[in-house]
Design brief:
Layout (H helix, E strand, L loop, with lengths): L17 E2 L1 H10 L1 H11 L6 H13 L7 E2 L14 H17 L24 E5 L4 H11 L3 H11 L5 H10 L5 H11 L16 E5 L2 H7 L2 H16 L20 H6 L12 H4 L18 H12 L6 E4 L13 E8 L2 E7 L3 E8 L7 E6 L10 E7 L2 E6 L5 E6 L7 E4 L1 E2 L2 E2 L2 E2 L12 E7 L2 E6 L7 E5 L6 E2 L3 H7 L14 E13 L6 E11 L6 E7 L7 E7 L11 E8 L5 E8 L5 E6 L3 E4 L2 E6 L5 E6 L5 E3 L3
Parallel strand pairs: 5-9, 19-21
Antiparallel strand pairs: 1-2, 3-4, 6-7, 7-8, 8-9, 10-11, 11-16, 12-13, 12-17, 14-15, 17-18, 18-19, 19-20, 21-22, 22-23, 23-24, 25-26, 26-29, 27-28, 27-30, 30-31
Helix pairs in contact: 1-4, 2-3, 2-4, 6-7, 6-8
């Protein structure tokens, strides 16, 4: 592994913005998983996976400044987290200390703090390491291990932070790197499988646990430690009531006492919307849902839910949709539901930004769960239902107060009708969930909601908030509600499986082109499905092609974080190889949006055609680069 010294950091400029400690802390907490992943990528693999994980967490937690600090301005910081000087400061400190941690120890010189094994965090008796990836992730990790620290930092800033090279140079220079051009050249040699950086292989927040050397631990365990542990356990048991739950349930010990925190954790201050508030409110979202369930008056249950939300203990299973902060509530949240569901007690809370689901078993104190989902900016169509419970392949929902009926519908069979579900105080009877299905996709069950004379369809994608399904041209989409829109979704329903667990807010299916097939084989359909997320970034786009009578669409191209097929830019271009009944292969391509003057193919197929579609003879396995000329003279490259 190469090494490279880190030069003293440049002196701050008086023009640089000043960041308060509170602003830096907010950025660190909100983007903690991203910062830890960045530190993990910059640290050398020679540390070993366990120490690398703990060091990454330690460096990020120590990145909080002690007082107001100036931070360099990066030109790309114009929106989102990149517009937050607090995030820029914390990220810079993480990169700087990670580079320092990778430096070799020198004789006759005191080691720097980052070069020493972290004192905190520590996990006794367990070895923690990220989940193993596939061959591609392993190959990338090996290539990164051959780079210097600045080279790894350059690659991570490019791929994970998506900074242009000029901004990467500025961050590296501010972190004390002398030769930023050399670092970028090292990153160039790795290639661009940047999507792999978001895989579990490089996620120090999603870990596997294994025991350490059990024999050595047994030999070196001191009697005093055993006695101390026994004393702690006995004291904890004495403090528990007969049903196995303490005052705060599975929550960790309190770490701070202040009036704001105490108010947020006081079950007596939890708010409840009036039963008819949604009828007169200016907006109809989760904030106007009334509290429902048979345990809304159980203060101790709500107390445990709030305490575990603020500080989940080690036995609590915590999950969050991507981009959702998991910190405690800033103030008293709103109660949406508290009740018994089979062998589980469930509480749903809403703080304006997130919906939080707390679940605990009726007996014992193990197995509590805490789930977070972003819901900011929800509309009436997106606030129609929340997942209450999943069990045995089924899901139960809590529906909005304006929902007058619910039904189960198989999206792959638009003419199959809908099966009515019972609604009890807004809770549906169980229905099959596609989120827990594995194997070949032969059906896709969705929830159909009735709101007076209007209907809409939503799909469970493994999160608290089901995704809204729509059809139509971007910018003027409509809910799936009638026979035509159901038929439009049927061939593409199984493609929803590719966006499970991604924090999806809505998925739109839009037929952007139709194309006559050679040999009078009918007309093919081009459909673009775009999955938008609650966090704004990370949208996933699939261009799919379907032949006449085909049961499902075939994915022709896909991309992530692109404006294609969206309200900002509806234009899209995709192509596919198609084999005729006579055995001849063709390249079929189509452009959608405002039309196209011409479509051109180069590379494995050389052809062009006027208008938005292209049909050209091709060889089996041929690869071509597509480009379309738009009416305004701009060019459009193929999706993906």
């Amino acid at each position: 592994m190469q090494s490279q010294d880190v030069a003293p950091r440049p002196a701050p400029s008086a023009a640089d913005p000043v960041v308060d400690v509170e602003q830096a802390e907010a950025a660190l907490v909100e983007h903690y998983p991203r910062l830890v992943r960045l530190a993990y990528l910059v640290l050398p693999s020679g540390l070993g996976r366990r120490r690398r994980v703990l060091t990454a967490h330690a460096l990020v937690q120590r990145a909080l400044p002690r007082n107001r600090t100036r931070t360099p301005v990066i030109p790309a910081q114009s929106a989102g987290r990149e517009g937050d000087p607090g995030y820029a400061l914390v990220r810079l400190r993480v990169v700087r200390t990670a580079l320092t941690a990778g430096l070799p120890l020198r004789r006759r010189a005191w080691p720097r703090r980052a070069q020493l094994p972290p004192l905190l965090p520590q996990v006794w008796g367990l070895t923690l390491f990220p989940r193993s990836g596939g061959a591609d992730e392993l190959a990338l990790d090996q290539r990164l291990s051959g780079l210097s620290g600045p080279g790894r930092a350059a690659y991570a800033l490019r791929g994970l932070e998506k900074l242009p090279d000029g901004d990467v140079r500025q961050v590296l220079a501010a972190a004390g790197v002398d030769d930023t051009d050399a670092a970028l050249r090292e990153a160039d040699a790795v290639g661009e499988p940047y999507a792999l950086l978001r895989s579990p292989e490089f996620d120090p927040c999603t870990l596997q646990a294994r025991p350490t050397d059990l024999m050595r631990r047994r030999q070196h365990t001191k009697a005093a430690l055993v006695a101390g542990a026994a004393l702690v356990v006995c004291g904890a048991l004495l403090g528990l009531p007969g049903d196995g739950w303490g005052p705060d349930g599975a929550a960790a010990p309190p770490y701070a006492q202040n009036p704001a925190a105490e108010a947020a954790l006081d079950p007596g201050r939890v708010t409840k919307a009036a039963p008819t508030a949604w009828r007169t409110a200016d907006r109809t979202d989760f904030s106007v849902w009334p509290a429902r369930g048979d345990l809304t008056g159980d203060r101790e249950l709500v107390r445990r839910a709030l305490a575990v939300w603020a500080r989940p203990g080690e036995t609590v299973h915590v999950s969050a949709t991507p981009g959702t902060p998991t910190g405690g509530p800033a103030g008293p949240p709103r109660l949406l539901y508290a009740g018994d569901l089979g062998n589980t007690r469930v509480v749903l809370l809403h703080d304006g930004l997130r919906v939080v689901r707390y679940a605990e078993p009726k007996e014992g104190s193990a197995g509590a769960a805490l789930d977070f989902a972003r819901t900011d900016g929800a509309t009436r169509s997106e606030a129609g239902a929340l997942v209450l419970d999943r069990a045995d392949g089924n899901v139960r929902y809590l529906t909005a107060p304006w929902v007058t009926g619910a039904a189960e519908r198989d999206l792959t069979r638009p003419g199959g009708g809908a099966m009515d579900l019972t609604l009890t105080d807004g809770v549906t009877s169980p229905l099959a969930s596609p989120a827990q299905h594995s194997g070949a996709c032969t059906s896709w069950n969705a929830l159909q909601l009735a709101d007076g004379s209007r209907t809409q369809v939503v799909s469970d994608l493994g999160e608290l908030v089901p995704a809204r399904l729509t059809t139509g041209r971007p910018g003027s989409v409509k809910n799936v509600s009638g026979a035509e829109s159901l038929r439009a979704w049927a061939p593409y329903a199984c493609s929803l499986g590719s966006v499970r667990g991604q924090g999806v807010r809505a998925v739109n299916a839009w037929e952007f082109a139709s194309q006559p097939l050679p040999g009078a084989a009918g007309t093919g359909s081009w459909v673009c499905t775009r999955a938008e997320t609650w966090r704004g970034e990370g949208a996933r786009v699939l261009a799919q092609f379907r032949t006449p009578g085909g049961p499902a669409g075939a994915v022709a191209a896909k991309a992530e974080d692109v404006p294609a097929c969206g309200a900002r830019d509806a234009h899209v271009l995709a192509g596919v190889l198609w084999k005729s009944e006579g055995g001849q292969w063709y390249l079929l391509a189509a452009a959608g949006g405002d039309g196209a003057r011409a479509v051109t193919a180069t590379g494995g197929v050389s052809a062009s055609a006027e208008g938005p579609v292209l049909t050209a003879r091709a060889e089996e396995g041929a690869k071509a680069e597509l480009r379309a000329t738009l009416p305004d003279g701009r060019t459009l490259d193929g999706l993906g």
